[in-house]
């Protein structure tokens, strides 16, 4: 259809039909599904009529080509004007082939692989009938107590923005209208959901507008600049107003300043939740505030269908706002080609061929390898293939390695670590749990100690269950469960070399394992091929190259702890001991246990002299920073060379360091290569107190190194 045809279609719609297009329901409320809704249960509770459901515009959560085709066919029979349904789902880090969690993908620092993972997820989803994914989640996060850190790529706005773009490219491709194996992407959660107080899900967010614009908004904007089709409103308040009813945020910034004219959708029931927030008296006021804010689709609450007709009749809402929202929905359906082909890419036969195919599993393996981060190694890793190994821990033979939001991925399809180790270890391999995730009995411990005594090296497979992170998975205690720490204490007494593999969805407080183990490999939730990838890393078939994108705290009491912090007026001088009246803890270092950007390798790298092409830059002239990096070890490895800048004096306080670029160098033993960065004036801009985005003349420090802590530095001036 062209725009005139869409306009003609809109004019033919009754007000009730238009408002129904704004309603999103789960599939069980629709006719034509196995568990179709009746005017009982959920439909009755929501006060929905059959006509409302039959006219609703989109479906949440259904997948499978045959199921979606059947529902679409039944829906179209009842559609007076032939307007097809949109099918949406949470395809966050894979559909059937599950990739590492997004936080792990961020630790790969590999934008091409990240894009490929989204492309594969789109391909599998589209052939199964899905049109829209609720991804990428680009919320900046500094608090690992929040369970949803597993969905983000970390604590840095610049890096999050790069990954946001990569994911959008992967999901949508370059020709969404013509490519039936792509999805429309929906960036979330707008805005600042990752700053929930106390790391508690759905909790209050409160910050200055300058802080919001400087750190939290850039990644959403990056996704939209890449062409992201949809935005999801967050659950939280922003400046005291729930996001789903926040006119300044949605109509002011998102639509007004940024010019976004795509679909804005609520999160699950977040429009009605304005009542619980205390920002709306009832469903009617919630509908009023959400429509005024510009929310087009209401997910799983009936405020719009029940109250927008009366709000229009009373003159409180102009029908033109409804028309704008409906037109945006029609335009996306048209862009996806649904008017010509309501089933789009859904194809049961091709679905059987594509889902979890070898090509997709190989990509999942590659990303699991590159996402894993070697946190410590005192020479224990890599293992010798002929070693006698005791693989001990609740993850030793565990299939729960997919992580939260694993869509239709099946745990039983995941390659378990124990299974993969059996195929790779030629020496004796003994596998035993030692304990459950959060409990231990005497028999389990006895078997673990017996296995460890007979082994040359102990490999501990520890971590969180997948349900311990993700949505609703906030924790105040982010150490390993007590039973696992007790297992570590008992095994440590045997004085055998210990390598620990940690499976988890967040940065953990590693007390009780980091000092006790000789090596620590952060595996995250590595996805369908996780066991194979981790096994190959442990025995040295692959060389770890991941780098952290969230800092690991010394303890939970430090949180939030992040690399791009301010200096304070009384900074602590590490060379001076005993000072009290400085910004410090009396029972802990200020610094994290492991900084942003950190990660080890089985080889070593040496940095040469940091050279600048000039000591000054101007608005029109840039400078170049160059450094030679040499692989001084005996194995091929990848070094992620990172560039940071500090503005020494700003109109408002500036961070100690800010990531401004990185390069990944793959080097053979003895090989050297030059990492080169161009620094221009626009990289030095920031939001001033009046919210203007400009740079200030003055002095800057430039840092280059393997992480945010261990850097060479030089100085330059902006004149």
Output the keywords.
719 residues; 21 helices; single chain; six-stranded mixed sheet; eight-stranded parallel sheet; 27 strands; Glyco_hydro_3_AS
Structure overview:
- The chain is an alpha/beta fold and 719 residues long.
- Helix content is 30%, strand content 18%.
- The chain has 21 helices and 27 strands.
- The strands form six sheets. Strands 9-6-5-4-3-2-1-10 form an eight-stranded parallel beta sheet. Strands 11-16-15-14-12-13 form a six-stranded mixed beta sheet, sandwiched between helices.
- Strand 4, helix 8 (157-172) and strand 5 (184-190) form a beta-alpha-beta unit.
- The longest helix is centred in the N-terminal third of the chain and has 17 residues, at 111-127.
- The mean pLDDT is 97.
